Fold each of these.
Amino acid sequence: MKRTPFLITGAFSLILLGMLYISLNEADSYAYSTELVSLFLLWIPPFLSWRGVVELPWPIILLIGVSLFLHSLGLVTLWYYSTFWWDKLTHFVTGMVVAALITMALLIIMQHSRTITVPSKWMVFFVFVAVVAFEVFWEIFEFTMDSTVGTNMQHSLEDTANDILTNFITGLIAGVAVAYYLSRCTLDDFVEGLKVERAVAWFRRHLFEPPA
Amino acid sequence: MRGGLQVGASYALLSLLVAGFVQEVVRQDPFWALVALMGIAIALLPAVLSREPRNVLPWWFVLLIALPSIGSLLSNLLSDHYVRLTDAAFWIADIIGVFMISLAVMLVIRGYSSVRMNRPFLVGSTFMVFEVFLGAYGVIDYQFDQLLGTHNITSNSAFMVYVTISTIGAVVLALMLNYYIRLSDLDSFQRDAVGRGVGD
């Protein structure tokens, strides 16, 4: 694993551990369980890199760290409840993470498939659709958690509608940014840096070309 | 090329979509007015892009797209005679209608742009576009409720139950679509639907 992603993950882990300590002291079960899940999510990219599945570029790892940090910070400081724009900020950053991951997945698929081609100008549409769709999935997840576990993730109809609206805007911004970025670089250069040959071979073997 | 009777049926069904659009505007329900409008636009788009009026979406496709409008018009007519369509029937009509608009969008993109996609990618994208419609439903109707004082969405839980059930319905439809295209052939299905296959 490269040094920079490891350092980023380590730094955010220390911050999240600090927040976990505070939440445990305050016996805030929702906050500390969220921070534990955040720590788990934070270490998925290094684990995938260590297993040789994919090496995410460090800006994406940084973005993942920032989104998890902002979410936990909002819970520890209660800014989710006191600052009206905090929720929109976290939705915006998380939308950017989703856009980055979707773009990477799409580029890898395009690089290794003969039947899928998405020109860079059409990335605006596909990234937008993916970001909004994942936002709707997230709202369903929040509603399910509130209904079954008794959390208070969804506050009101206004909150839900504005969260979705935030991600409509995020999807549009991310889509334009991705299309602009891809119009200035080659697909081969980008995908080669990800070192996904092993993962692609696995998918081909198990999903697309099942053994006889 | 489709026969005159089939093309006539498509245009006749399009008039139902126009009637549905007018009704939703009168009822001040902006999302469903937008769905009807998008249904009209996407049904006519292949004909416009190919400059061939006969390339309007086939009647069965337009019928499925028009289901929410037909349901809405029927409920309006039948309510005067004390007959009420169940909520479940409305929901199924809405889900199928919006899913078919999503499918038409993806087929038009595949047929008339340089985007190329295989069956799983097409089905997955259709499902995602459907989810965008659900998101738009929440945003548009909520904003209009605030602006006009209407009550198209009554509460957060009512909205989320609708979104959750619609998503489950869309998963079922996506699996059925995937199975159907797998049995036939994506290019011939697309040619039949939007009048143009890849490479035509």
Amino acid sequence: MSIIAVAAAGAVEEQAMAQVENSLEGVFGVETYRMPPFPDPAYAYDPSRNQFSSTLVLREVLGRRPADASKMIVVTDVDMFIPMLSFVYGQAQLDGPVAVLSIARLRQEFYGLPTNQPLFLVRVRKEALHEMGHCFGLTHCRDPLCTMCLSTNIQQLDQKEARFCDGCAALVRGALAAAGDIR
Amino acid sequence: MKKRWEILVVDDEPVMRESLAEWLMEDGYSVDTAASGQEAIARAKLREYAIYFLDLKMPPGIDGIETMMEIRKLHPEASVIIMTAYATVDTAITAMKEGAQEYVVKPCSPEEISLLVGRIIKVKNLQRENLILRKKLTKHYRFQDIISKNARMVGIFDLIRDIANLRSTVLIQGASGTGKELIARAIHYSGNRAEKPFVAVSCAALAETLLESELFGHEKGSFTGASERKSGKFELADGGTLFLDEIGDISPKLQVDLLRVLQERSFFRVGGSEEVTVDVRVIAATRVNLQEAVAAGHFRDDLFYRLNVINIEIPPLRERREDIPLLAHDFLERLAHELGKQVDDIAEGALKLLLDYDWPGNVRELENAVERALVTARGHVLTEDDFAFLRRAPQTNGWAAPDNLPLDEVQKLVIAATLRRTGGNVKEAASTLGIDRSTLYDRMRKYAIER
């Protein structure tokens, strides 16, 4: 039975953490458990960009996955980047065990808009499914409504749904079956 | 199934290249990385990538632009995206001049990169689709071994279908390299003689007596060296087709013999007394105008009318330019396979060059040009540079008369150039120039031109 470990890096609000756990359990049908939080990712801070390197965060937490968890997702509230891009919502190892997710740009406040907690939580759900989808070997989907569709801005993220399309869902089932979780 | 496109990310900074590679892999591409220009070139030699992301500044060794130039030598069709941390107009211009498809400043928005890669891949997909469609199209335009969509050629194909099952003699006229033998073969192989032999004889290649024995065979002891009885081509072609190339070159005596065979369907072997009867369809071909030869008294008119029952005139390649892309791609496919070269397309600029060229040597010259380009080609696509040798050849199109050039000087230059092209063959040169051999000899003496 696959277990997905869920951990925060630095301070992350509880509602977001619970949303990640519920989403993964509900959609993947696997067990999750909460790890004690990792330290604040100050080590990944780039002062010239005032952002945090997602690659360095991923590298830091890679060896800290518990032995009984086949996958691990690490959630942070800091804004992340890779050198080539101005930002990333998350970074995952394709068909690998670990993903990191930044919730900084999922809040309406980031765009100077009033708080909208339900919308924020839907976005958290979409991105958690998306990054974990990569860990299960899925690449971006061309279906604009599928959660595996690439979102390069918040409008695209809002446009897609918090579910896998039929094709991607089949790939997820295949990956889970290969891991011995479903038949 | 669609081929997965491969991308190479080249940057000396590990976090930079690995994070971009991972990001592209999440988008479904197969991605390799290289830490230096040298490593990138080594990888490009091993496989072909659809897109190269190259960092402009990569110490030590060679920088992004130099790396790009090397890669483009290997793969002229490769799409290169130059990445840099600082935008300067100068480097951007240099990069684009040297053939970079895009120039991006780090960091750029995910949207920008996604659109950029998507756009390049879309073009690559269209190019591949185009290649597949073109192959299907070539099949559509193929008749036996001949490819054409030219109206006159299609008319010839229709005529061939109509006459394939007849025994009537055919006369094929066309300049050198237009594919006269291919037409003859197409007639033979689309008719009811296809299972029987197709025998080809070049009348220009042999001296009169040899040609006579070649065509009709000889009895033992009929001449010095005739130690065995030998069947001629007419006998070998019994039931099938005899193709007589360069019929305009045969001697008056052979013209009489040939006329007799065409009338009687029988002949005597050289030195023989036994009449041999055959069922042979004769297809004759000539690159000289046989009617003019008749008018000049060089060719028997009765033989001409016997041969000219069905007349096929093949247009020169410059009058069917629409076939050049079809033919060039067909030659490319076949010759690349024969030469073991991984080349599968011809660049647009190269194709334009081929379309504008006059092709005095017709389809054969085009075939040779594609072969020559293939031999020296380094990329997967034949480029304008691969066909540079065509530009050196003089073109008649758009020729402007130079000042102060006497007609005598023009004649001297033209005769000398023609003789050079025919390798000193006076007969061929005379034919090309449209004058008699004796006239050509006179002019050669007059202008002191050596063979």
